[in-house]
Design goal:
The chain is built from ten helices and 14 strands. It is of the alpha/beta class. The strands form two sheets. Strands 1, 4, 5, 8, 9, 10, 11, 12, 13 and 14 form a ten-stranded mixed beta sheet that branches. Strand 4, helix 2 and strand 5 form a beta-alpha-beta unit. Helix 1 crosses helix 8, helix 8 packs antiparallel against helix 9 and helix 9 packs across helix 10.
């Protein structure tokens, strides 16, 4: 089987740019308008991807800007605990320094989970190219970013586009997750800005809904993935497929198109997942998929590791996947075992 890409074993498998936020969650099944306490964690789409990769054994780093105060130091400690490299964290010592916050409320059928953001004018929104060590460009196999960072503000948008071009010129592959958030921008706004970076992408993660609503495509998911891949010369186009039975019960799989072979890849869905906390499960999919690519240079492994990471993340509390490679391998093996696998790990 031929390689998907030619990797050069650089220092960082994946480097990502994104905001790290403080997550305050009400106790499980308690609404935000109830109670007097929150659970404190950190979160952020791009950090979730990097920490997931690290848990599987691939080195990754996050580029972000955090306040130089107690909350920023809490973030630094938690980033290190996640295994992600903090080599490119930038510290804001201005009077306006601020850590973005989001509040999370767990769902219970028929009440959906909900999120409230308080992130305007955070330290990350003021990050600029002069903050970033230029050595990172030559040390990176894959540069990953999401539509959230493009959408936050004009400054992060300009920086993201600039970094995509710099990493591309240095020989890195570019990975992009559309990760659409309706509270940040409209489909029309997103289509225009994302259109600027599509010619630079090697790996694209986009939902079927975004193909339809954002880019006005029609047909089956396979038709839309292939059309998009051919139009913008994107080597890998991946879409997750989640069926929500209730907030606590989901089915999950994904479909991936590889342009060089013209083939589609998928596997049977994971059914009746016991969902504890779905936040970060899409990011976990990306971390598993990119791991499968970096470690095995295989689209089959891209799919298998992506699906398994997402499924396991659904079963744990917090934004980041708490896993290791042994656990994910066992999940994959059990999923492919026609007998259903063993009942206990012992």
């Amino acid at each position: 089987m031929s390689n998907v890409f030619e990797f050069r074993k650089k220092e960082y498998g994946v480097v990502s740019l994104g905001e790290i936020m403080l997550r305050l969650s009400s106790p499980v099944n308690e609404m935000l308008i109830q109670g007097n306490s929150f659970e404190k964690q950190i979160g952020g789409s791009e950090l979730n991807v990097i920490s997931g990769l690290e848990s599987l054994g691939q080195r990754g780093a996050i580029i972000s800007k955090i306040p130089d105060n107690e909350l920023g130091r809490f973030v630094k400690r938690m980033v290190r605990a996640s295994g992600a490299s903090d080599d490119f964290l930038i510290y804001d010592d201005t009077k306006e320094k601020r850590l973005g916050v989001y509040y999370y409320e767990y769902g219970a059928y028929p009440r959906k989970p909900s999120v409230i953001y308080d992130r305007n004018h955070s330290s990350f929104s003021n990050i600029n190219i002069d903050d970033i060590d230029p050595e990172v460009f030559e040390k990176t196999e894959i540069f990953h970013v999401s539509g959230i960072t493009l959408a936050l503000c004009g400054n992060t948008r300009e920086l993201t586009i600039d970094l995509i071009k710099k990493f591309k010129n240095a020989g890195a592959l570019i990975s992009f997750d559309v990760n659409y958030r309706a509270n940040l921008w409209t489909n029309e706004e997103a289509r225009g800005i994302i259109g600027e970076i599509l010619p630079y992408l090697d790996i694209l993660f986009m939902s079927e809904e975004c193909f339809i609503k954002m880019f006005n495509l029609e047909g089956s998911l396979e038709d839309m993935q292939k059309e998009f891949s051919d139009r913008y010369d994107i080597q890998i186009v991946a879409s997750t497929q989640r069926k929500v039975i209730s907030p606590k019960k989901h089915n999950f799989s994904s479909k991936v198109f590889q342009r060089s072979t013209g083939k589609f890849f998928t596997e049977k869905p994971y059914e009746n997942i016991d969902v504890v906390d779905r936040i970060g499960s899409g990011d976990a999919y990306l971390s598993g998929a990119l791991y499968g690519l970096l470690e095995h240079n295989s689209i089959e492994k891209f799919v298998q590791y992506g699906n398994a990471m997402s499924v396991v993340k659904n079963t744990t509390i917090g934004d980041m996947a708490v896993v290791d490679s042994k656990l994910i391998k066992n999940v994959i093996e059990d999923h492919n075992d026609s007998t259903g696998g063993s009942e206990l790990n012992r």
